[in-house]
Amino acid sequence: MQARLENMGLRAGKTVTRLSSMPSGGPIMVECGGTRLALGRGIAQHVRVREVAQRTESGTDRDE
Amino acid sequence: MADTGIGGDTELATPDDTRVLLVGNPNVGKSVVFSRLTGVGTMCSNYPGTTVEFLEGSMRLAGERVPVIDVPGTYGLSATCPAEDVACRILEDGGVIVNVIDATNLERNLALTLQLRQRPLRMVVALNLWDETRHRGIHIDAERLSELLGVPVVPTSAVAGVGIKDLVGAIEQVAASETPEVLEPGDVWCRLGTIIEEVQQLEHRHHTWRDMLEDITIKPVTGIPFGVLALLAAFAMVRFFGETVIAYVMEPLFETLWRPVVTALSEALGGAGFIHDLLVGSYVLIDGVRTLDFVQSFGLLTTGLFVVFGMVMPYVTAFYFVLGLMEDVGYLPRLALLLDRVMHRLGLHGYAVIPILLAFGCNVPGILATRVLDTRRERFIAATLISVGVPCAALQAMIFALLGPYGIQYVLLVYGILVIVWFVLGTVLRLTSRDFLPEIILEIPSYRRPSFRTLWQKLAMRLRGFFREAVPVVFLGVVVIDLIYMTGAFELIARVAGPMMESLFGLPPETALAIAVGFLRKDVAIGMLAPLDLSAIQLVKSSVMLALTFPCIATYAVMLRELGWLDTLKATGLMLTIALVAGVAMNLAL
Questions:
Q1: Cβ-Cβ contacts under 8 Å, A37 against chain B
Q2: The complex's ipTM?
Q3: A46 touches chain B (CB under 8 A)
Q4: Which residues in chain B have their CB less than 8 angstroms from residue A40's CB?
Q5: Hey, of B138, B210, B334, B439, which one would you mutate to test binding to chain A, going by the most A CBs within 10 A of its CB?
């Protein structure tokens, strides 16, 4: 799983931006290094992030 | 999805060093490069999973024909899903690699390139979507990139055909040379960072219309209404186009050009008899006039041709055009994201919307497309839901033709009942299987301007598939019905199954035969209801029953192939049960 996300561009040390989240536990959509991904809520919860900038909805992150 | 037989289960060409392998991430235009290199029309879409089955073609390289394989899109070489596994296995059999990468997303795409470079492979990099980089303020030093990677890098814009000649030149050159030295193993991500820093510069980007569209379509507050509107608009477009073409092109053509031919033929054949009834059908009374009718006469040259060209083809064409547009623009993955939650109620994922939407055209490619789903359980649920509750364009066209005159509310009633049945069945399927449903991980590609060349190729390919599947079976259906009429078996079936139709469903005995014929072709079967003088409500009931019972024979064949005997039997059992329950419920409620 981690390898798959890494290959898709979601890696430790990259900045991720949350673009949207579907209501009632639906998937969320993030942008990371120019790639947009839809992730199930459960997977997204395993991505550890640290907030970097106070733009509307952005955070930064560290995946695992 | 190779819905029209290209690719399929054909075995790979024998391991061969001369062949050309197109390798790259999904959604980088790999299929367009493939069709440019081989000159063969292939599927090319904007959503992940299109090329789960590889396509094979050939190209001329240094005077010789060599095979070209469009390897399934993959993000890496670690085989984290079935498509990637196939990709890795194909790579192991040798060949010259053309690594197609998306220049607008260099960083992610180079991850695969670097993994490829750690293996002893001869390869060329095609820096595709090169024209897009300019619009987005991305500057890439292709020469420097080539030096750093140690392999040729060719900028291309495959949709416009730019750079393809240079690419072929580079392939020839690489094919004739030695395998380059592999990059020494090391941290891929670290090396990736250095390369990106050296070759790519980004200008400040303005907020473009694309970003605005993106925001609108993916935020739940605006995206859900947008999705509903988009689907309604698509539906309205299909209906508008279908009806217009039927009313202003097909019907006048048949009436003015074809009717005289058929009438002359009927006279020549003596106006009756076996051959006559088979070819032009039997005379029917319409408003008290004895005439040949394109819907009700049931001759090969009347009903057979008219059902295919006059009633169904316009809708199917419009449907596939609109679907192709949504695919190529890149809207479908967003729809998958928006509908993920709803689909989970049915035990499926968001991406199951893709096979399901396809099935509204024809159930056959819909069921084939269930291969993009990850687990066997999802494939079973999706295929069952499709075969039971998704009416194909042919069936819908006939429902519109028959029920439309009574008012749109009856058509909506049919759809409403199907939706209810669908959710009931989906819930049952979800609750009865306990397998773990993996969560969605889906790349959402950028919106792209569709290429009319590929849209047209795809439409032509799907229409060819429709004609191949539909025409022989429609004709067979017409012949079978004629034979049933002529041999008197019709009476027998109506007498045996009829009482059940009447007592359970409140339908006249003759509808039993229509449902039996539905196994061959749904559109022909609905045509059989036309002469029965049913009330609007009875038409609604029989349309729903026809949609719910056995899918047509072609759909059955692919279900058997995709699911195997056991699951097909299970699906059939569910289908019969739900048709029975729904039929009785409708009889009580309506």
A1: 441-444
A2: 0.84
A3: no
A4: 340, 438-441
A5: B439
Asked whether residue B320 falls in the same domain as residue B171, the answer is no
Is B227 contained in some domain? yes
Q: Domains in chain A and their CATH numbers?
A: 2-61 (2.30.30.90)
Q: Does A30 touch chain B (CB under 8 A)?
A: no
Residues of chain B in contact with residue A8, where contact means CB-CB under 8 angstroms, are: 75, 108, 441, 443
Q: What is the pLDDT of residues B428-457, one digit of tens each?
A: 988 887 666 778 888 888 888 777 877 887
Rounded Cα distance, B496 and B509, in Å = 9
pLDDT digits (tens, 9 = 90+) for B96-112: 999 999 998 898 899 89
In a domain, B439, yes or no: no
Whole-number Å distance between alpha carbons of B3 and B167: 29
Tell whether B176 and B310 lie within a shared domain. no
Q: Are B307 and B523 in contact (CB under 8 A)?
A: yes
User: What is the C-alpha to C-alpha distance for residues B480 and B519, in angstroms, rounded to an integer?
Assistant: 12
Q: Tell me, yes or no, whether B6 lies in a domain.
A: no
What string of DSSP letters covers B121-167?
Answer: --EEEEEESHHHHHHTTEEE-HHHHHHHHTS-EEE-BTTTTBTHHHH
- Contact status of A14 with chain B (Cβ, < 8 Å): no
The residue out of B174, B202, B230 marking a domain boundary is B202
CB-nearest partner of A8 from B75, B219, B446 = B75
Q: Write out the residue range of the structural domain in which residue B192 sits.
A: 20-202
